[in-house]
Task: structure prediction
Amino acid sequence: MKQLFSFLAAAVLTVSCATAPSALTKSGLDPKAFEGQYNGKATALYTLTNESGMEVCITNFGGRIVSVMVPDKDGKYRDVVHGFGSVSEYFPENNDNNFGATIGRYANRIGKAKFTLDGKEYNLPANDGENCLHGGPLSWDNRVFDVVESNATHLKIALESKDGDNGFPGTVNATVTFTLTADNMIDIQYEAVTDAPTVINMTNHSYFNLSGEPGTYDVLDDILQVNASCFTPTDAGLIPTGEIVSVEGTPLDFRTPTRIGERIEQTSFEPLALAGGYDHNWVLDSKGNIEQPAVVLVSPRTGIRLTEYTSEPGVQVYTGNFLNGTITGKKGVTYNRRTAICIESQHYPDSPNKEQWPSVVLRPGEKYTSRCIFVFDVVK
Result:
């Protein structure tokens, strides 16, 4: 893991973004299609590249990863994330999606759309049945972030979330820094401060398909390993019950590499039936140690391997169960059910209502930090 933290200086130092001369990206995106405005703020596309040939395209609308180009076992470059070919397609009035997005203030669900902090109850908008999901409607994934720093391997963006934003207390100032290293790692670092007690839980919501052909192949043949001995069972609304239960003997046991589709239809196991597949929070054995792998995903078809490291105590693994063929993405591809997998590093869902779990409270004078690293290589 020593290489994990060696950000080599040999990377290309010229910025490629929406302000650069028009040219298609390696993934086929037109930067001009991302030049726009949303609620009076300018949007753009920022392209990170390294000397190895990897490319990551990000828009400041929602802090979204739009494309990730990595080589397969034959050296062919493939785009391994879902997304759209223009910024307007990401706008909530055009597509209800969180492809590639920076999620805040609170990733995942808060039960009954409310929580109590320091004796005061806060009511949030219910945008997922009776629950609040991913910070509520028109949350950070649908805001334009300010660009603080950018070059060919580095993008830092910032957002101010006012007191009362979707019902959350305190004005929060958050930053997200994306770094593409010379050895094909996307290092995402989150920071936030607040002027009043609040709760916060940020993540990236990329939809991965390591075949690079989501119009043809789903993720059921991919091999998944999750470094977790326990998970948090949920009720019918996908809100954790408060228990932490062993994965031993269940379809959620991915401690050894297992084909995703091998047990996904075992609906006699109630958690799978409730979620329509995998959409669960695993309690990571790495316990926030970012030098230990949390999740490993391999496509036998392309040989592309994705390894996630995180400082978070949990990870939500979601197998695109609610993709239903109604969204058309880049290059006219229709995104059908289970054509992607999300690996969302996080504190546990509904933690504001579970005092026994790791705290998500942020107070004035403190700094929220979180880190997630996606490492790409190939298995021959």
